[in-house]
Amino acid sequence: MINIKNKVFFLLLLFTSAVFGQLSRDKEATNIFDSFDSKSRQAQQFMQQPQQVALEGVVEAEKYFVGPSDKIALNIWISPAVNFVLTVTPEGTLIIPTVGEIKVADKTLADVKKIVYSEVRKKYLTSELTITLIEPRPIIVTVSGNVLNPALYTLSAVDRVDKAIQSANMVAQRQTQGELSATIERMSTRNIILKRRDGSTTRIDIPKFLATKEDKHNPYLREGDVVIVPRKNPSKNVIGVYGEVNNPGRFEYVEGDSITDALKIALGCTRLANLDSIEFSRLDSEAKILETKILKLSDISDGNSKNIPLEPGDRIVVKQKLELREDFVVYIGGDVKYPGTYPITKNNSRLSDAIRAAGGFTEFASLKSAELYRRSVSPREMDIERIMSMRGSISPDDSASYQIETELRIQKEIVNVDFEKLFLQNDKSQDVLIKDGDYIQIPSLKNTIYVFGQVISPGHIPFIKDGTVAYYTSKCGGFTDAARKGDVKIIKSKTKQWLDPDETTIEEGDYIWIPKTPERSFAYYTTVLSQTASILSVVIGIAVLIVQVTK
């Protein structure tokens, strides 16, 4: 009896365990399913999010044409609100639940809103409605003609014609920037043809769109569009706009261009433009007679003067107003109280004015070594100046030296002025006029002489008045055995001239250079000896000949 009860209890225990185990597994499976379902919904929501399309501005409902794959949100503000995300079908219709199918293709977004509003109102009489474009559709357009890569391109319905051309000019594999430059050089930008699917054509003018922002010159693209980029003649079919405009140069001519159109394409006039003196020039058909007129822009704007229609080859020059004010400055560095950049007046400011503005010299300033530099050749003209400097007849002996001096002159020209005479002796003849871009350098007192070359211990030696070469070399431990004592040179601190000791007085900051006696091989001396002997034999022979002749 006890065994039967035990067996029953054991079976009941197994059954209970199995039930609870199954429940646990069911719960686990449910949790896994719920988790998978949650992730699936998140992925679906992510996939349903609208793609991010770069926009140049808000989409204007009156200009945007609706087409297949556009996504439009319809919100009906009842309680609870009803929200639909609708996609225009390939047939160009919107299917609205509980309302029906509405034809919307090839209609502006503004018209679609009116139609949808009218149809939904029939179902929801008093509710507030909103209809919004939430994702512009992708479109396929054809770009052909003078572009780098003619082909079909997938773009967006909010892209303009210039975006299609830009896509067709992307440098692909095995293509070079040189090929792109050549393509752009011959590519028309003002006579582009846009063919619509309905057979209509429009002329596209990119420069004019950039100048005026008028949509007709660069409209939005639609599916099936064909963009044809013709070739331009960069020398014949052009007009020129020069002078005080923001983008001077040659521009492709388009029939119907006028004076004001040309100024717009050149991105308008600058602040310095003399609008009462615009020069217009035109050649006759044989390009022999040049007719020139002076126009006032105000008269053209007011209708008092004709806005002349342009022809190929016409040129417009916008003259500049007289403006004397410029950023005239000098740069002062070194031992002045306030180094920096200082404004000056044109042809009126002097050296003393600039030093005064910089607060004067510090107690460490070396007026003897101070210099005023000037650059009369602009950086972009340096190469031309170097070439032109070599045009003269220069002997081979002078050419290397001349090149060095020319390079120094191009980099900085020294204005010959004695700072000590001006600021210590009040010699006004040294108070020179300074010019824009001049650089005034005031070095520090060195109070040393630098001795280097063939001395035992090269280095700086404290300067003493009337010090000699012998004094400074002795302070450096004397000459080495290899010193060439007869060729000692004094290098001047300011001018970097190399002078013999008897040609100058040693001044603070100067350098003393002791060259090395060159090492000669035995062959060198035998060669010199043989050459000397040859010369002596010739001289003796001539002398003997003269004696015999005079007997």
Q: Key terms for this structure?
A:
about 550 residues, alpha+beta, wza like fold, Outer membrane lipoprotein wza fold like, 6 domains, 5-stranded mixed beta sheet, 25 strands, elongated
Average pLDDT level: 86
Question: Can you tell me the CATH topology of the largest domain?
Answer: Outer membrane lipoprotein wza fold like
In DSSP terms, counting alpha (H) and pi (I) runs of 4 or more, how many helices?
Answer: 13
Total beta strand runs? 25
The low-confidence runs, each spanning 5 or more residues with pLDDT under 50, are 7-20, 22-50
* Secondary-structure-derived class: alpha+beta
Helix content: 25-40%
Give the name of the CATH architecture of the largest domain: Roll
CATH homologous superfamily designation of the largest domain: Outer membrane lipoprotein wza domain like
Rg (CA only): 45 Å
Strand residues, percent? 15-25%
Task: Give a short account of the largest sheet.
Answer: 5 strands, mixed
> If strands are numbered along the chain, what order do they take across the biggest sheet?
7-6-10-8-9
